[in-house]
Design a protein that fits this description.
Helix 7 links the parallel strand 10 and strand 11. The chain folds into three domains: 172 residues, FAD/NAD(P)-binding domain (3-Layer(bba) Sandwich), CATH 3.50.50; 113 residues, FAD/NAD(P)-binding domain (3-Layer(bba) Sandwich), CATH 3.50.50; 74 residues, Enolase-like, domain 1, CATH 3.30.390.30. Helix 1 runs parallel beside helix 11. It has 13 helices and 26 strands. A five-stranded parallel sheet has the order 3-2-1-7-19, with helices on one face. Strands 9-16-10-11-12 form a five-stranded parallel sheet, covered by helices on one side. 41% of the residues are buried. The chain is an alpha/beta fold. Bound molecules: flavin-adenine dinucleotide (FAD). Flavin-adenine dinucleotide binds next to helix 1, strand 2, helix 2, helix 11 and strand 22.
């Protein structure tokens, strides 16, 4: 009987096993995860769960009975430590081994603790990262009203946690390495909009590089190039690093992620990679791309299952992500550059608008901010060439552009 082993316990892994069974795969199927929880979705960790509005059952992909009834052998709480490609075997940290005919790597990312060396003070009590449910539980437990929270980093997770912490009545300082958070991703226009949103909700956003955290007389002290400030709780939100070690030691081709083709096969034809660790060839963008988003984990999981079933699919899905911060809900589709020109459709002041990114006339990306049911139409516009004055003209319906 054929045997497929999936390494990882996140959304991408769950998506692979769900789709395989959905497609009628009846061979042996195992999922190995270092985490003790059943696979769950991570976006609520910085939003609904941290706000106290959602609980793990709300974002667990399938309950235990689903895996039992679909004959998926779960190996939770145990890490895979190496892949013996010649023997087609995976060694696990508990000393056991799993044979495979086909293997899927879905080992995702971990929170960065700093560049080459961890940031001084990263392991002090009260200093957190946010990647797992366990991280979110300990952060939620300490996120008290009135607490002084320091968020180091102004990427997605930092800004989302800053918003949630304010909503929970904490005093929040964000240490941003750049003057305008997220400008490196979106350019200054949307970055400034997000900055103003946070400032008007009482977040103190400082342009400063944090050098370390110290414990002084029983409280934390954040040391930055703009001085030192006291904090009750610190979140290090300084990026995520793909878990590539297994792939590297197995001799797979690795660049910024595991290099896979458009059907998600790695340099070893029996091994696929999906989700945050996969640097896949995107046929719509005609380039290799590694994407750290929820939607990508689901879709690549499905495509990997199709490839395992012998189909000749290819990954042509434009990157998509969403975020929620205060009263701003946003969806983004495409792959824009901060150097692209931007066009706004609607009124930024009102908080409800669309934004387009353009390289010349070509639309590279688009976002809907507090306007819903527009993202599918925006997806259809990405890649097209449309004059800016038409894009911004409210008299022309979006679908008629
Ligand atoms: C707090 C937070 C908020 C987010 N919010 C959003 C959002 O709003 N919108 C959005 O689009 N995206 C968001 N994301 C990103 C999104 O969650 C990720 O892109 C997605 O989780 C990737 O799924 P994955 O399965 O590839 O990897 P992961 O979710 O990282 O899962 C990898 C799994 O593999 C396990 N693993 C690693 N190494 C081994 C090993 N050697 N052996 C066994 N198991 C191993 C890990 O323990 C983990 O269970 C957020 C992420 C976080 C952390």
């Amino acid at each position: 009987m054929e045997s497929i082993v999936v390494l990882g316990g996140g959304l991408a892994a769950a998506s692979v096993v769900s789709e395989l069974r959905e497609r009628g795969y009846t061979g042996a199927l195992s999922l190995v995860s270092e985490e003790t929880e059943l696979p769950y979705e991570r976006p609520p960790l910085s939003k609904g769960f941290l706000q106290g509005k959602e609980e793990p059952a709300d974002f667990t992909v399938h309950d235990a009975s689903w895996y039992a009834s679909h004959d998926v052998a779960l190996r939770l709480g145990v890490a895979a430590i190496s892949i013996e490609t010649a023997k087609r075997q995976v060694l696990l940290a508990d000393g056991s081994a799993l044979d495979y005919d086909q293997l899927v790597l879905a080992t995702g990312s971990r929170a960065s603790l700093g560049g080459g060396t961890p940031m001084p003070g990263y392991d002090l009590p009260g200093v957190h990262v946010l990647r797992t449910l366990a991280d979110a539980k300990s952060l939620r437990a300490e996120l008290a009203e009135g607490a002084q929270v320091a968020v180091v980093g102004s990427g997605w997770i930092g800004m989302e946690v800053a918003a949630t912490a304010r909503q929970r009545g904490a005093r929040v300082t964000v240490y941003s390495p750049s003057e305008i958070p997220l400008a490196k991703v979106f350019g200054e226009r949307l970055g400034n909009h997000l900055l103003e949103l946070h400032q008007s909700n009482g977040v103190d956003v400082r342009t400063a590089r944090v050098q370390g955290i110290e414990e002084v007389d029983g409280h934390l002290q954040v040391l930055s190039d703009a001085g030192s400030s006291r904090a009750d709780l610190v979140l290090l939100a300084i990026g995520a690093l793909p878990n590539l070690q297994l792939a590297e030691t197995a001799g797979l081709q690795v660049d910024s992620g595991v290099v896979v083709d458009a059907s998600l096969r790695s340099s070893d034809a029996r091994i696929l990679a999906v989700g945050d660790i996969a640097q896949a060839f995107n046929t719509a963008l005609r380039r290799q791309l590694r994407v750290e988003h929820w939607d990508n984990a689901i879709r690549q999981g499905k495509l990997a299952a199709a490839t395992l079933a012998g189909e000749e699919g290819s990954y042509d899905w434009l990157p998509y992500f969403f975020t929620d911060q205060f009263d701003l809900g946003m969806e983004y589709v495409g792959h824009g550059s901060p150097e692209d020109t931007t066009v706004v459709r609607g009124d930024m002041e009102s908080g409800e608008f669309l934004m387009f990114w353009q390289d010349g006339l070509k639309i590279t990306a688009a976002a809907n901010i507090n306007i819903w049911d527009a993202n599918d139409t925006l997806r259809g516009l990405v890649g097209r060439e449309i004059a800016a004055d038409r894009l911004s003209d409210p008299a022309i319906e979006l679908k008629d552009l």
